[in-house]
Write a structure and sequence with these properties.
Keywords: Metal-binding, Zinc, Zinc-finger. This is Histone-lysine N-methyltransferase ATXR2 isoform X1. It comes from Phoenix dactylifera. InterPro entries: ATXR2-like, SET_dom, SET_dom_sf, Znf_MYND. By secondary structure, the protein is α+β, with helices and mostly antiparallel strands. Among the domains are: 106 residues, Beta Complex (Beta-clip-like), CATH 2.170.270; 184 residues, no CATH class. It is 43% helix and 10% strand. The protein is built from 18 helices and 12 strands. The chain has a 4-stranded mixed beta sheet with strand order 1-2-12-9. It has a 3-stranded antiparallel beta sheet with strand order 3-11-10, with no helix packed on it. It has a 3-stranded antiparallel beta sheet with strand order 4-8-7, covered by helices on one side. A hairpin with a 3-residue loop joins strand 1 and strand 2. Helix 2 runs parallel beside helix 11, helix 4 packs antiparallel against helix 7 and helix 10 packs across helix 11. The longest helix has 23 residues. The protein starts with 6 loop residues before the first helix and ends with a helix. The chain binds zinc ion (3 copies).
Length: 494
């Protein structure tokens, strides 16, 4: 591949190399010990060995079905295409508003031609770019309409009923029309973005403030943002939405580091009196930048264009040019982001080398963010009512179900980086899995024991569909950059 088109890659090569250097075993251990302390997951510890890298081990026993970990996302974003379907908090990804708002908003936006796709089905998950599909789809999408004769919906199969009148939908959105039994499914109220943009909404002031402080204050396109930055941000977002929304996630990472850097700097003011020499100031600033970057330094990463799996429709002889195109795409996105939020003191973050590695980290480590829809639960509830109540409720609610069609239960989908879960190693006979229980209504990753786990055992999950035969598993795992030597693979390899 020819040399980088980004001048910063060369100019700042020393700083970039320092940021990308793998952290020392000691600093890895310290970082995770602190993280475990802060998240109070005392049943777990992260162990780092030079031979096996990071792994998650138990400090206590777990019973089958027991919760092992709820892992908060370090950074996460809902897929752009999913925003029509699900109105969720931009920080914790809880559904917000009301069942009426969820239904009315979705039908209204669909009516405007903002198309929707991706039913929450197995297909979507098994084809996600990173191949991680641990979410148990029977659970998330356990109610498939055409499996139920009882629903009596005329919209079964793939046909959707005629659109409902717009004013009916608006009255749902504006809280003038209530559907029966939705009181059983109250959702948190919709809190607006403090910067005044229409893009982000929250379930609470706490989420709004946390998002603002950690990510959004640099990325908000609201009226309070300076005009030229707003215009640049719009361009960046538009490009991401029309190419790959992973760029939005990368922008969130960069703004997280810049904001953290500024916080660190203001809490470590340069001592009064003696101004250190310029070199020393630079050194000091860079030490703060490294500190701010630390959570990201822990994630395994490679350049995006080097590690992205070659799509099936790209011939292997075109591989080099495909990878070059991916790099150029990332560079275009980076230039747009730089226009919007460049900070001289954090300049290395705007090098293509760092941008590529941040995106590559998501490619290699991330897990899908999934939150089940309360709209699904609502219709199931109505369908399970005793005959008399059900008849009345259905008369009112079913036209909406018909209008929603097969996509009535689309869940919130996105991409997230989970700091502890990403330390879990793969096994084709795992002792744990990612699994959302009924009460898990936000974006956190939830890990449950699949069988009894004793003290000191390593927690393993499967990155792929572990029911696949040996050869296919190895092919899929090659995308993660390793050959599996779990007990089952060792047994089956011959
Ligand atoms: Zn929230
Ligand atoms: Zn905003
Ligand atoms: Zn294996």
């Amino acid at each position: 591949m020819d040399s980088s088109p980004c001048p910063l890659d060369k100019e700042l090569s020393d700083q970039i190399a320092a940021l990308l250097a793998p952290p020392s075993p000691q600093s890895i251990q310290e970082y995770y010990d602190k993280l475990i302390e802060a998240t109070k997951c005392h049943g777990l510890r992260i162990k780092y060995t030079n031979k096996h890298g990071k792994g998650v081990y138990t400090n206590s026993e777990f019973k089958e079905g027991e919760l092992i970990l709820k892992d908060q996302m370090l950074v996460a974003a809902q897929h752009s295409s999913n925003k029509v379907d699900c109105h969720v908090c931009s920080y914790c990804f809880r559904f917000i508003g009301s069942i009426e708002l969820q239904i009315g908003r979705k039908l209204y936006l669909q009516g405007l031609g903002l198309s929707t796709k991706k039913e929450c089905d197995y297909e979507t998950f098994s084809h996600s770019s990173n191949g991680m599909c641990q979410n148990e789809m029977e659970e998330v999408g356990h109610f498939v309409m055409n499996e139920s004769d009882d629903m009596g919906s005329s919209s079964s199969k793939n046909l959707k009923a005629d659109p409902l009148p717009e004013d009916l939908l608006l009255s749902l959105i504006n809280d003038e029309l209530s559907l029966p039994y939705t009181k059983q499914f109250t959702l948190p109220p919709v809190i607006a973005c403090p910067g005044g943009c229409e893009e982000e909404h929250y379930c609470s002031k706490l989420c709004a403030d946390s998002d603002w402080e950690s990510f959004h204050s640099l990325l908000c396109t609201g009226q309070n943002t300076e005009q030229s930055r707003r215009a640049s941000l719009f361009k960046f977002i538009e490009h991401a939405n029309s190419t790959n929304d992973i760029f939005i996630l990368a922008a969130k990472v960069i703004s997280y580091i810049i904001l953290k850097y500024r916080k660190l700097k203001s809490s470590h003011p340069i001592k009064n009196g003696k101004q250190p020499s310029l070199d020393k100031t630079d050194e000091f600033s860079f030490s703060l930048l490294r500190e701010a970057w630390k959570p990201i330094s822990m994630g395994f990463k490679k350049r995006w264009w080097d590690c992205i799996a070659l799509p099936n429709d790209v011939d292997s002889c075109d591989e080099a040019s495909f990878r070059m195109q991916i790099r150029d795409l990332a560079f275009t996105s980076l230039k747009l982001l730089k226009e919007a939020i460049f900070d001289d003191e954090c300049a290395p973050l705007f090098s293509l080398e760092i941008y590529g590695h941040i995106i590559g980290m998501f490619e290699l480590n991330n897990l899908d963010l999934v939150v089940a829809s309360p709209v699904e639960d609502y219709f199931i509830y109505i369908d399970d009512l005793p005959c008399k109540e059900k008849h009345h409720a259905k008369t009112v609610a079913w036209p909406f179900l018909d209008a929603l069609g097969d996509e009535y239960a689309v869940c919130c989908q996105g991409t997230a980086f989970f700091p502890l879960q990403s330390c879990m190693n793969h096994s084709c006979c795992p002792n744990a899995k990612a699994f959302k229980r009924d009460e898990d209504r936000d974006g956190y990753a939830v890990i449950i024991a699949l069988r009894p786990i004793s003290i000191g055992e390593e927690i393993t999950i499967s990155y792929i569909d572990e029911d696949l035969p040996y050869d296919e598993r190895q092919v899929q795992l090659a995308d993660y950059g390793f050959r599996c030597r779990c007990p089952r693979c060792l047994r089956e390899q011959s």
